[in-house]
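S1.2 Input.
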Amino acid sequence: MNDLSNREYGFDTAAVRSGTKRTGFNEHSEALFLTSSFCFESAAEMAERFKHSENYFTYSRFTNPTVTMFQERLAALEGGEACIATASGMSAILSVVMATLQAGDHIVSSRAIFGSTLGMFSQILGRFGITTTYVDPVDLDAWRTAVRPETKMFFVETPSNPLTELCDIEAVGEIARSVGALYVVDNTFCSPAVQRPLQHGADVVMHSATKLIDGQGRVLGGALIGTRQFLMEKVFPFVRTAGPSLSAFNAWIFLKGLETLSLRAERHSANALAVARWLEGHAAVKRVYYPGLESHPQYELARRQQYSGGSVLAFEVFGDTPEQQRDNAWRVVDATRLCSITANVGDTRTTITHPATTTHGRITPEARAQARITEALLRIAVGLEDPCDIREDLNRGLPT
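S1.3 Output.
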Protein backbone atom coordinates (compact mmCIF):
# COMPACT_ATOMS: atom_id res chain seq x y z
CA MET A 1 0.00 0.00 0.00
CA ASN A 2 1.03 3.57 -0.66
CA ASP A 3 0.92 5.05 2.85
CA LEU A 4 0.42 8.81 3.30
CA SER A 5 -0.06 8.66 7.07
CA ASN A 6 3.43 9.35 8.41
CA ARG A 7 3.75 12.98 7.44
CA GLU A 8 3.11 16.16 9.37
CA TYR A 9 0.43 18.41 7.92
CA GLY A 10 -1.55 21.45 9.00
CA PHE A 11 -4.95 20.64 10.52
CA ASP A 12 -7.00 21.21 7.38
CA THR A 13 -4.59 19.23 5.22
CA ALA A 14 -4.43 16.40 7.74
CA ALA A 15 -8.23 16.25 7.79
CA VAL A 16 -8.19 15.50 4.05
CA ARG A 17 -4.93 13.60 3.52
CA SER A 18 -3.59 11.94 6.66
CA GLY A 19 -4.06 8.22 7.16
CA THR A 20 -4.68 7.59 3.46
CA LYS A 21 -3.56 4.14 2.31
CA ARG A 22 -3.78 3.39 -1.42
CA THR A 23 -3.93 -0.07 -2.90
CA GLY A 24 -2.26 -1.20 -6.11
CA PHE A 25 -5.16 0.33 -8.02
CA ASN A 26 -3.99 3.77 -6.78
CA GLU A 27 -7.52 4.97 -6.06
CA HIS A 28 -8.01 8.64 -5.21
CA SER A 29 -10.75 8.29 -2.59
CA GLU A 30 -10.19 5.97 0.37
CA ALA A 31 -11.01 2.35 -0.40
CA LEU A 32 -13.86 0.68 1.45
CA PHE A 33 -12.85 -2.80 2.60
CA LEU A 34 -16.09 -4.68 3.25
CA THR A 35 -14.53 -7.97 4.27
CA SER A 36 -14.70 -9.93 7.47
CA SER A 37 -11.37 -11.71 6.96
CA PHE A 38 -8.12 -11.62 4.98
CA CYS A 39 -6.23 -14.33 3.12
CA PHE A 40 -2.61 -15.48 3.45
CA GLU A 41 0.00 -17.05 1.23
CA SER A 42 0.83 -19.89 3.60
CA ALA A 43 0.08 -21.44 6.97
CA ALA A 44 3.31 -19.98 8.31
CA GLU A 45 2.38 -16.47 7.22
CA MET A 46 -1.07 -16.84 8.73
CA ALA A 47 0.37 -18.05 12.05
CA GLU A 48 2.85 -15.17 12.19
CA ARG A 49 0.23 -12.53 11.42
CA PHE A 50 -2.28 -13.86 13.92
CA LYS A 51 0.49 -13.86 16.52
CA HIS A 52 0.97 -10.14 15.89
CA SER A 53 -2.57 -9.28 14.87
CA GLU A 54 -2.27 -5.66 15.97
CA ASN A 55 0.23 -5.08 13.15
CA TYR A 56 -1.51 -6.92 10.31
CA PHE A 57 -4.93 -7.25 8.72
CA THR A 58 -6.21 -10.65 9.77
CA TYR A 59 -9.84 -10.31 10.81
CA SER A 60 -11.98 -7.17 10.80
CA ARG A 61 -12.90 -7.48 14.46
CA PHE A 62 -9.20 -6.80 15.11
CA THR A 63 -8.04 -4.61 12.24
CA ASN A 64 -9.39 -3.38 8.91
CA PRO A 65 -7.69 -1.06 6.40
CA THR A 66 -10.59 1.41 6.22
CA VAL A 67 -10.90 1.53 10.00
CA THR A 68 -7.13 1.99 10.29
CA MET A 69 -7.25 4.98 7.94
CA PHE A 70 -9.92 6.60 10.09
CA GLN A 71 -7.98 5.89 13.28
CA GLU A 72 -4.78 7.39 11.91
CA ARG A 73 -6.53 10.48 10.57
CA LEU A 74 -8.38 11.21 13.82
CA ALA A 75 -5.21 10.64 15.86
CA ALA A 76 -3.40 13.15 13.67
CA LEU A 77 -6.13 15.76 14.18
CA GLU A 78 -6.20 15.28 17.97
CA GLY A 79 -2.41 15.29 18.21
CA GLY A 80 -2.28 11.75 19.59
CA GLU A 81 0.03 8.88 18.79
CA ALA A 82 -2.73 6.37 18.10
CA CYS A 83 -6.48 5.83 18.00
CA ILE A 84 -8.79 2.87 18.52
CA ALA A 85 -12.22 3.14 16.93
CA THR A 86 -15.30 1.45 18.36
CA ALA A 87 -18.93 0.83 17.43
CA SER A 88 -20.29 3.84 19.36
CA GLY A 89 -19.29 6.55 21.77
CA MET A 90 -20.64 4.53 24.69
CA SER A 91 -18.64 1.48 23.64
CA ALA A 92 -15.53 3.68 23.60
CA ILE A 93 -16.17 4.67 27.22
CA LEU A 94 -16.88 1.06 28.18
CA SER A 95 -13.69 -0.08 26.45
CA VAL A 96 -11.37 2.31 28.28
CA VAL A 97 -13.04 1.49 31.61
CA MET A 98 -12.99 -2.27 31.20
CA ALA A 99 -9.45 -2.21 29.85
CA THR A 100 -8.03 -0.34 32.82
CA LEU A 101 -10.24 -0.84 35.89
CA GLN A 102 -11.26 -3.78 38.06
CA ALA A 103 -13.50 -4.48 41.03
CA GLY A 104 -12.62 -2.19 43.93
CA ASP A 105 -11.41 0.67 41.74
CA HIS A 106 -12.89 4.14 41.93
CA ILE A 107 -13.72 6.83 39.34
CA VAL A 108 -13.98 10.55 40.01
CA SER A 109 -16.28 11.99 37.38
CA SER A 110 -17.80 15.32 36.56
CA ARG A 111 -21.47 15.27 37.51
CA ALA A 112 -22.24 17.09 34.25
CA ILE A 113 -22.00 14.18 31.82
CA PHE A 114 -24.20 12.54 29.21
CA GLY A 115 -27.15 10.63 30.68
CA SER A 116 -26.03 7.27 29.27
CA THR A 117 -22.53 7.78 30.68
CA LEU A 118 -24.06 8.52 34.06
CA GLY A 119 -26.17 5.40 33.77
CA MET A 120 -23.16 3.27 32.89
CA PHE A 121 -21.09 4.57 35.79
CA SER A 122 -23.87 4.42 38.39
CA GLN A 123 -25.95 1.41 37.38
CA ILE A 124 -23.74 -0.94 35.36
CA LEU A 125 -20.19 -0.50 36.66
CA GLY A 126 -21.46 -0.45 40.23
CA ARG A 127 -22.67 -4.04 39.82
CA PHE A 128 -19.08 -5.06 39.11
CA GLY A 129 -17.59 -3.29 42.11
CA ILE A 130 -16.38 -0.12 40.36
CA THR A 131 -17.64 2.93 42.22
CA THR A 132 -17.97 6.53 41.08
CA THR A 133 -18.00 9.85 42.90
CA TYR A 134 -19.54 12.79 41.03
CA VAL A 135 -18.24 16.31 41.50
CA ASP A 136 -18.94 19.82 40.31
CA PRO A 137 -16.66 20.07 37.24
CA VAL A 138 -15.81 23.68 38.06
CA ASP A 139 -14.81 23.08 41.69
CA LEU A 140 -11.16 21.99 41.80
CA ASP A 141 -11.31 21.40 45.56
CA ALA A 142 -14.17 18.97 44.97
CA TRP A 143 -11.96 16.95 42.63
CA ARG A 144 -9.21 16.81 45.24
CA THR A 145 -11.57 15.90 48.08
CA ALA A 146 -13.19 13.08 46.08
CA VAL A 147 -9.92 11.21 45.60
CA ARG A 148 -9.52 7.91 47.45
CA PRO A 149 -6.60 5.49 47.65
CA GLU A 150 -8.43 3.29 45.11
CA THR A 151 -9.08 6.14 42.62
CA LYS A 152 -7.82 5.05 39.20
CA MET A 153 -9.65 7.31 36.73
CA PHE A 154 -10.80 10.90 36.27
CA PHE A 155 -13.53 11.43 33.68
CA VAL A 156 -14.78 14.74 32.32
CA GLU A 157 -17.00 15.95 29.50
CA THR A 158 -16.30 19.50 28.44
CA PRO A 159 -18.37 21.35 27.42
CA SER A 160 -20.99 19.39 29.30
CA ASN A 161 -24.28 18.10 27.97
CA PRO A 162 -26.51 20.09 27.99
CA LEU A 163 -25.51 23.10 30.14
CA THR A 164 -22.14 23.68 28.39
CA GLU A 165 -20.27 23.82 31.69
CA LEU A 166 -16.53 23.83 31.11
CA CYS A 167 -13.96 21.85 33.01
CA ASP A 168 -10.50 23.38 33.27
CA ILE A 169 -8.77 20.52 31.47
CA GLU A 170 -5.26 21.49 32.49
CA ALA A 171 -6.06 22.11 36.18
CA VAL A 172 -8.02 18.87 36.64
CA GLY A 173 -5.29 17.01 34.77
CA GLU A 174 -2.71 18.18 37.29
CA ILE A 175 -4.83 16.71 40.09
CA ALA A 176 -5.24 13.44 38.21
CA ARG A 177 -1.51 13.13 37.61
CA SER A 178 -0.73 13.89 41.24
CA VAL A 179 -2.72 10.82 42.33
CA GLY A 180 -1.75 8.57 39.43
CA ALA A 181 -5.25 8.44 37.90
CA LEU A 182 -5.90 7.99 34.19
CA TYR A 183 -7.43 11.19 32.85
CA VAL A 184 -10.14 10.71 30.20
CA VAL A 185 -11.79 13.68 28.44
CA ASP A 186 -14.94 13.37 26.34
CA ASN A 187 -14.40 15.79 23.45
CA THR A 188 -17.59 14.93 21.54
CA PHE A 189 -19.21 18.36 21.74
CA CYS A 190 -16.17 20.13 20.33
CA SER A 191 -14.23 17.73 18.09
CA PRO A 192 -10.53 18.43 17.43
CA ALA A 193 -11.56 21.35 15.20
CA VAL A 194 -12.64 23.26 18.31
CA GLN A 195 -10.66 21.73 21.20
CA ARG A 196 -7.70 19.34 21.61
CA PRO A 197 -7.58 18.05 25.20
CA LEU A 198 -4.27 16.20 24.79
CA GLN A 199 -2.61 19.60 24.45
CA HIS A 200 -3.98 20.51 27.89
CA GLY A 201 -2.94 17.38 29.77
CA ALA A 202 -5.54 14.70 29.03
CA ASP A 203 -4.26 11.12 28.85
CA VAL A 204 -7.09 9.83 26.66
CA VAL A 205 -9.58 11.68 24.45
CA MET A 206 -12.92 10.01 23.80
CA HIS A 207 -15.37 10.72 20.97
CA SER A 208 -18.81 9.78 19.90
CA ALA A 209 -17.95 10.00 16.21
CA THR A 210 -21.69 9.79 15.58
CA LYS A 211 -21.86 13.53 16.25
CA LEU A 212 -19.63 16.19 14.67
CA ILE A 213 -17.15 13.77 13.09
CA ASP A 214 -19.86 12.27 10.89
CA GLY A 215 -21.68 15.57 10.82
CA GLN A 216 -24.73 14.39 8.91
CA GLY A 217 -26.46 12.02 11.32
CA ARG A 218 -25.81 8.87 9.30
CA VAL A 219 -23.87 6.25 11.28
CA LEU A 220 -22.69 5.31 14.78
CA GLY A 221 -19.12 5.13 16.01
CA GLY A 222 -16.72 6.01 18.77
CA ALA A 223 -13.01 6.51 19.28
CA LEU A 224 -10.25 6.72 21.88
CA ILE A 225 -7.05 8.69 21.22
CA GLY A 226 -3.88 8.66 23.31
CA THR A 227 -0.40 7.17 23.42
CA ARG A 228 0.32 4.14 21.28
CA GLN A 229 1.65 2.20 24.27
CA PHE A 230 -1.49 2.68 26.37
CA LEU A 231 -3.97 2.00 23.59
CA MET A 232 -2.21 -1.05 22.15
CA GLU A 233 -1.21 -2.62 25.47
CA LYS A 234 -4.40 -1.89 27.41
CA VAL A 235 -7.35 -1.08 25.16
CA PHE A 236 -6.64 -3.07 22.00
CA PRO A 237 -6.68 -6.48 23.76
CA PHE A 238 -10.12 -5.70 25.20
CA VAL A 239 -11.59 -4.48 21.91
CA ARG A 240 -10.06 -7.43 20.03
CA THR A 241 -11.58 -9.94 22.43
CA ALA A 242 -14.88 -8.31 23.42
CA GLY A 243 -15.62 -7.07 19.91
CA PRO A 244 -17.11 -3.53 20.18
CA SER A 245 -15.54 -2.92 16.77
CA LEU A 246 -16.27 -0.16 14.27
CA SER A 247 -17.55 -1.36 10.91
CA ALA A 248 -15.55 -0.56 7.79
CA PHE A 249 -18.50 1.19 6.20
CA ASN A 250 -18.99 3.50 9.18
CA ALA A 251 -15.25 4.22 9.25
CA TRP A 252 -15.43 5.21 5.57
CA ILE A 253 -18.30 7.61 6.33
CA PHE A 254 -16.28 9.14 9.18
CA LEU A 255 -13.24 9.57 6.93
CA LYS A 256 -15.32 11.64 4.57
CA GLY A 257 -16.78 13.56 7.52
CA LEU A 258 -13.33 14.51 8.76
CA GLU A 259 -12.53 16.09 5.41
CA THR A 260 -15.08 18.85 6.01
CA LEU A 261 -14.90 18.98 9.82
CA SER A 262 -13.00 22.27 10.08
CA LEU A 263 -15.32 24.09 7.69
CA ARG A 264 -18.43 22.73 9.36
CA ALA A 265 -17.20 23.49 12.88
CA GLU A 266 -16.50 27.10 11.92
CA ARG A 267 -20.00 27.59 10.51
CA HIS A 268 -21.66 25.68 13.37
CA SER A 269 -19.97 27.96 15.89
CA ALA A 270 -20.80 31.17 14.02
CA ASN A 271 -24.46 30.16 13.68
CA ALA A 272 -24.69 29.04 17.31
CA LEU A 273 -23.27 32.33 18.55
CA ALA A 274 -25.78 34.29 16.45
CA VAL A 275 -28.69 32.23 17.78
CA ALA A 276 -27.41 32.41 21.37
CA ARG A 277 -27.11 36.20 21.25
CA TRP A 278 -30.64 36.47 19.88
CA LEU A 279 -32.04 34.16 22.57
CA GLU A 280 -30.22 36.10 25.27
CA GLY A 281 -32.17 39.20 24.29
CA HIS A 282 -35.54 37.46 24.02
CA ALA A 283 -38.10 38.40 26.66
CA ALA A 284 -39.42 34.82 26.89
CA VAL A 285 -36.00 33.32 27.63
CA LYS A 286 -34.82 33.16 31.22
CA ARG A 287 -31.21 32.17 30.61
CA VAL A 288 -28.89 31.04 27.83
CA TYR A 289 -25.94 28.68 28.23
CA TYR A 290 -23.27 28.99 25.53
CA PRO A 291 -19.47 29.23 26.01
CA GLY A 292 -19.14 31.82 23.25
CA LEU A 293 -21.28 34.34 25.13
CA GLU A 294 -19.55 36.87 27.34
CA SER A 295 -22.23 36.12 29.95
CA HIS A 296 -21.11 32.50 30.27
CA PRO A 297 -19.39 32.16 33.67
CA GLN A 298 -16.42 30.41 32.05
CA TYR A 299 -16.13 32.54 28.96
CA GLU A 300 -12.44 33.28 29.57
CA LEU A 301 -11.68 29.57 30.10
CA ALA A 302 -13.47 28.80 26.84
CA ARG A 303 -11.25 31.32 25.06
CA ARG A 304 -8.15 29.60 26.51
CA GLN A 305 -8.96 25.98 25.71
CA GLN A 306 -11.38 26.17 22.78
CA TYR A 307 -10.98 27.73 19.35
CA SER A 308 -14.66 28.72 19.24
CA GLY A 309 -17.88 28.25 21.19
CA GLY A 310 -19.00 25.09 19.42
CA SER A 311 -22.39 24.13 18.04
CA VAL A 312 -24.44 23.33 21.16
CA LEU A 313 -26.34 25.76 23.35
CA ALA A 314 -29.07 25.46 25.95
CA PHE A 315 -31.66 27.87 27.25
CA GLU A 316 -34.37 28.01 29.88
CA VAL A 317 -37.90 29.29 29.43
CA PHE A 318 -39.99 30.80 32.20
CA GLY A 319 -42.47 28.88 34.37
CA ASP A 320 -43.55 29.04 38.01
CA THR A 321 -43.85 25.28 38.52
CA PRO A 322 -42.09 22.27 36.94
CA GLU A 323 -45.31 21.41 35.13
CA GLN A 324 -45.62 24.90 33.71
CA GLN A 325 -41.94 24.90 32.75
CA ARG A 326 -42.38 21.63 30.85
CA ASP A 327 -45.49 22.91 29.09
CA ASN A 328 -43.69 26.06 27.99
CA ALA A 329 -40.60 24.14 26.87
CA TRP A 330 -42.61 21.57 24.94
CA ARG A 331 -44.55 24.38 23.29
CA VAL A 332 -41.31 25.65 21.78
CA VAL A 333 -40.38 22.18 20.56
CA ASP A 334 -43.80 21.44 19.10
CA ALA A 335 -44.04 24.78 17.29
CA THR A 336 -40.85 24.25 15.28
CA ARG A 337 -41.11 23.47 11.59
CA LEU A 338 -37.46 23.69 10.59
CA CYS A 339 -35.59 22.23 13.58
CA SER A 340 -35.49 18.45 13.82
CA ILE A 341 -36.98 17.10 17.04
CA THR A 342 -34.26 14.57 17.82
CA ALA A 343 -31.46 14.09 20.34
CA ASN A 344 -28.47 13.95 17.99
CA VAL A 345 -25.94 16.81 17.92
CA GLY A 346 -23.28 17.91 15.46
CA ASP A 347 -25.57 17.46 12.47
CA THR A 348 -25.78 19.78 9.47
CA ARG A 349 -29.45 20.12 10.46
CA THR A 350 -30.39 21.98 13.63
CA THR A 351 -31.86 19.72 16.30
CA ILE A 352 -33.87 20.49 19.42
CA THR A 353 -34.58 18.35 22.46
CA HIS A 354 -35.93 18.55 26.02
CA PRO A 355 -33.14 16.94 28.08
CA ALA A 356 -35.17 16.26 31.24
CA THR A 357 -37.44 13.86 29.35
CA THR A 358 -35.00 12.51 26.74
CA THR A 359 -31.21 12.39 27.13
CA HIS A 360 -31.45 12.60 30.93
CA GLY A 361 -34.91 11.10 31.31
CA ARG A 362 -33.73 7.75 32.68
CA ILE A 363 -31.62 9.06 35.51
CA THR A 364 -33.14 9.73 38.90
CA PRO A 365 -34.88 13.04 39.65
CA GLU A 366 -32.22 13.63 42.30
CA ALA A 367 -29.43 13.18 39.74
CA ARG A 368 -31.18 15.53 37.33
CA ALA A 369 -31.56 18.12 40.07
CA GLN A 370 -27.89 17.81 40.99
CA ALA A 371 -26.95 18.30 37.35
CA ARG A 372 -29.38 21.27 37.14
CA ILE A 373 -31.40 19.67 34.35
CA THR A 374 -34.74 21.42 34.87
CA GLU A 375 -38.06 21.04 33.09
CA ALA A 376 -37.52 24.54 31.68
CA LEU A 377 -34.35 23.59 29.82
CA LEU A 378 -34.07 23.08 26.07
CA ARG A 379 -30.96 22.08 24.13
CA ILE A 380 -30.26 23.25 20.59
CA ALA A 381 -27.54 21.77 18.40
CA VAL A 382 -27.23 24.50 15.80
CA GLY A 383 -26.75 23.31 12.24
CA LEU A 384 -25.69 24.90 8.98
CA GLU A 385 -28.96 26.55 8.00
CA ASP A 386 -29.33 30.31 7.78
CA PRO A 387 -29.37 31.50 11.42
CA CYS A 388 -32.22 33.87 10.60
CA ASP A 389 -34.37 30.88 9.70
CA ILE A 390 -33.38 29.09 12.91
CA ARG A 391 -34.33 32.13 14.98
CA GLU A 392 -37.67 32.44 13.20
CA ASP A 393 -38.39 28.77 13.80
CA LEU A 394 -37.65 29.00 17.54
CA ASN A 395 -39.66 32.18 17.82
CA ARG A 396 -42.85 30.38 16.78
CA GLY A 397 -43.15 28.80 20.22
CA LEU A 398 -41.72 31.61 22.35
CA PRO A 399 -44.35 34.03 23.69
CA THR A 400 -43.77 37.63 22.75
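S1.4 Remarks. Residues 2-259 form a domain with the Aspartate Aminotransferase; domain 2 fold (CATH 3.40.640.10).
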